[in-house]
Structure formats: C-alpha cells, structure tokens
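# step 3/5: fold
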Amino acid sequence: MRYMMMKKSLFVQGLIILIGCLSLSCSDEPSLSITSEQVTVAAYYFPNYHPNDPRNQKWKGKNWSEWVLVKAARPRFESHQQPNIPLWGYTDESDPRIMAQKIDAAAAHGIDAFIFDWYWYDDGPYLEQALDEGFLKAANNHLLKFSLMWANHDWIDIQPYKKDSPKKVLWKGKVKQETFDQICDYVIQTYFKHPSYWKINGKPYFSVYELNKLMENFGTIQATRHALDQFRNKAKQAGFPDIHLNAVVWGRSIIPGEQKPADPADVVSRLGFNSVTSYVWIHHVALPDQQTDYTYVQEAYFKYWAKAESLFKVPYYPNVTMGWDSSPRADQDDPFGNYGYPFMNVVSGNTPERFQKALESTKQHLLESGAPPILTINCWNEWTEGSYLEPDTRHKMAYLEAVRNVFGGPDRKSGAADDQLNALSRAPVKKLPLDGEIFTIQGQTAFLILPEAVKSSHSMPWVWYAPTLPGLPGEEERWMFEKFLEKGIAIAGVDVGESYGSPWGRDIYSAFFDQLVNHRNLAKKACLLARSRGGLMLYNWVAAHAESVACIAGIYPVCNLNSYPGLEQACGAYNMSAEDLAAHIKENNPIDRLTSLAKAKVPIFHIHGDSDTVVPLPDNSGELAKRYKTQGGNIVLKVFKGRGHDMWPGWFQCQDLVDFVISHAPQQE
C-alpha cells in the first residue's frame, strides 16, 4: 500500500495497525503490568493478489494482479535480491482454501490479526475479494482476527510506473458525504458484526490512512469531527459501545482553508482519534544509500517512535518492518535509481535474524514502558514493496519463525477470555470427511484416518492421498475412504501447498513418510492416490522412493508440468526462472521420471476424462501411460467419454479404482 500514493513527499504515512490484545476485553488504556504473553501481533495485508478484480481487468487486462509485477522483477544493481519467488506459488487470495492456508500459517506462528487495506471510492469498493471471498469464507477464520484500514488515498496508475511519465489518478480518494455514510453503514453491518472482527474493549477497530484526504471530504476539521461522531453513533445504535478510531499519521496535516502545516497531535486530538500508528519504517526514515542497512533504518525509526510516544496524547502503536524494495513497481526497462517512488533506494541486510532482533527490541520496550501491548508488522504480503512474511523460496518460513521465536505460538495467551480460542489454536485445524487425527510435520498440516477396529497399527496398510490442501480431502472422497477403512486400510496426507512437486515439497513428503512408517508403524509401502495436482506431488516424490510404494492410483492426475500449471506458474515453487526450470525439466517432470517405477514393477491405475481441458488427457495420463508401457511398466488407463476436470461423483465412486487399491495394499502382519 502506499508509499506508492505519496506525491512529492519522501515520507508516507503508514498503515495503521492497532492490534490490541487478543482477549475480547482489551482496554483502550495503557497496561501497567504487561507480560510477554499479552503482547498482540498484527500484520498488514495488501489485497491485490487475486486475478478477478473488475477494475484491474478494465485497466490491466484479464487475470491481472500484482503477481504479474512480482514475476517480471529482476536485479537492478549488483547484489540486488530480485526476483522474490513465493514458496506457495502465485496463488489466488480470493480462494477460501488459499486464504485458509495463510490463516493457518499466521495463527501457528504467533500472529493474532490481519489488518486489511480496504478501499471504497465514490463508485464503490475495490480489491474487496481477498477479504469478502477469501478470508470471510475460509473455514478457519475463527483462528485470526481481522480489521480494516480505510485506504482513502488516490489510486495512481503506477503498476508499473515508467520513469518521468505523468502519474495518472485512476480513482480519487476524496468521497462525497453520501459515500461516507454508505461506507459507515456497510462496514458496521458487514464487518463489525463478524465474530472475528478485531475489537478493543468491545469497540471495533477502524483506521484511516490519510487525514488530509479525510478532511477534504467534509471541508473543515469541525465537519470532519461531526462525520466521525456520526459514525460512532451508528455503531452504538448497532449495539457496540463505540468505535476505536485509529489515525495513520506522517509528516504534518494541512487543515482545509489553511496554508501552513498543523500540529499532527492537535489534529488527532480535535478529530477524536483513539490511537495513532505507522505503516512502515521508511515513512519516517530516509534511505540515504542505494542499499541502506536494515539496522540503520531500525535505529532511526526507534528515534521516531520515542518522539511519537511523547508527541501524541493518545497511544502510539509501534511497527516492525521486514524490508523495503519497491523496484518491482518500477518499469523494468528504465534505468534504476533513487528518483522517487517506486524508483527508490532499498533496505538491505534484512535477514530473518535481524528481523527477529528488531522484534525482540520492540517487545522489550513494550514490556518495560507499560505501553499498550500492541505490535504491528509490515507486512504479510507486500511483495511488490519487498516487505512480506509469507514464505519465499530463499528463506522459506524463516520470517514467520522469527515471529514465533519472539512471541510464541498460538497457545501463548493466558486468561479465561482466551481459553476457547486457545483450545482451537493449539492444534492445526482441518476439516475431514471422516473422523481422524490432525497433526503437523515440519509446520505443515497433516492428517491420519484409522479404521475403527484397530487391534494394532503395526504394518497397517495405508493410502497416501494428495493434494491435502485446505478443504481437501473433501466430502467427495468419503465413499471411497469408507471402502478403504472397511478393509482395514488407513488414509493419510500432508499439505505441502502449491509446491507443484518441487524439492521442498518432496522433503516434507519424506518427513511425513518417516513419521508414519517409523514412528506410527504403518506399512513400509504406501498406496498412492493422486487427485489432480496431487499427481505432481506424489509422482515426483516416488520417483526417488520406488521401493516405498505398493501401487499408484490417479483421478485425472497432473503428470506433466508443461501441461499444468505451466512452467511460468510452477517455476516459483522450484526457486528457478521458467527458463531454468525448462532446462531441468527432465529432473522434475513426472512423465520423465518413470524408470525407477518401471524397474520396481509398481502397478498404476488412472481414470481420466477425454474432455478435460484443465489437465488434458493426452498430455498427462495418456502420455504417462504410453511412456510407462514402453519401459515395461504395468498401467491401466480408464477413459471416461465426455467427462472433464469436474466434481462428477463417478470420479470418486469408481469401484474399479477402489478394487485396484485394495488388491495391491500390503497385508497387515
């Protein structure tokens, strides 16, 4: 968000984040006896990573999101760390299953809330799908709080920005009185009343990004105060005690009708805000060098923090920033320099270890000062500004682990008000079609469903199901799972995200197999069941572990990276460019890695539709069957006429597939 919306000022005000203690009865006043367990951590969330936003489609074309800029980024100077490649792939945040993965990871690593950058212009909302379609429809959204920062700035066409070109305003941040009234009504009814909405002492937290733009809406500071008071009154009429209003403050505000900057503390006080915050360190710290050291920026920001604590009459909530590099938003063909956003110097040396030390220093000051136990982090996913906690292929989960190392996991909270939430948060959450155990392997959610009449799990046959993404396996698999259980066969799987069969996902698979075989005493040979993209995951793992598989069954499985998702989409998970992945395709593509399976005489059974346009039959099961037979392998391919890549019950109630698995499952000793 928004350094990008600065005009000529070097310092942009930061996104506000309030994140108060996770307890539902957190006070607005500073605590006099804060413990480490009471510090609450919130991460900003920038929601421009979904392909179906109507405005983006109009201005940028079909399926555009900021992932386009992330993919196009390249090094602009020596030792510049670009591109940054998401470990989970270039996912669609408006998909509830994808958002559930984010929620699980955040909650498991000590983050208590997301603060969504939230946009609403005179003609309606913008970028709302990540919250409305993703977060609010995610099955596990009870694990994480959420709140809004009204990003009421002008939206400028700078994605990417060509140096020295005019900065075109696409949507103006200033709104009409009737628009503001509509915003208030919508926010109260749609968000404040949601059980996961973030509240302080029962008061929904609502932040405003640009005070100048807010005052422009109403013409005077008095009229602006009146509008905010009316917002509060509407919330009270809806049953809330009040609203906790937070102001993002940077530089000095200009009161309408006046020329010289006003005292920001006076503006905050006259408008009646309850707290102040920042979005990112560089809004208060200039970057003097092309690669400005992280520790330098941290120390300079801490000086601003000390000043802010004494300047404002309301609490100031500190921020810890992961990094800064806005070069992905700069035209990649222009010469790069410190010419003004997004052509800016970057923060360097922001290793996970240094980030952790910054978190530790911030926590220590909070504990010693008696300030409100609130900490904000920039950012969950500012990929095009180089500040994100989401795992990339370089550091994996290290930044999230830094948060957990300092603040603990989801069970760190204390107090009766948190007991229910902690009970939900201590264990990974996953909904299964049948009763089973949920556990973690190297931080990844896994499951195991055992037959009811279990005398001993020693050498118990088992089906390894993939993909175990959020929401999978689903109710569709219930019928065949029940058939397996009736025959004494367990079912298990582990979520490796959108790893597309990459080495990282394979390593998790190896740890999962070791856990089940050597620590839970399941059979040493698994029956693999690959549905759709699960084919990439299972086939790439088993290519190096043919001795560990009894058979392979597939439901329209992906067997060819070139076919799905394509090298441009898959390369991020492999920590390669598309060109590099193409050069190493035979080492990473299931249809090219069948030799070990054929030598081990592993039987294979696939079902696939001849009208599948997502995972086309000829390029996947068809090509795999042809190559496997050529190498002497035993494979049966059952083709369903007129069927595509869909949820047709016949896929999941195929007696031939179930019989194949049962007949090849190892006998229990």
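# step 4/5: annotate
Confidence is low (pLDDT under 50) at residues 2-27, 29-33, 414-427.
# step 5/5: archive (pending)
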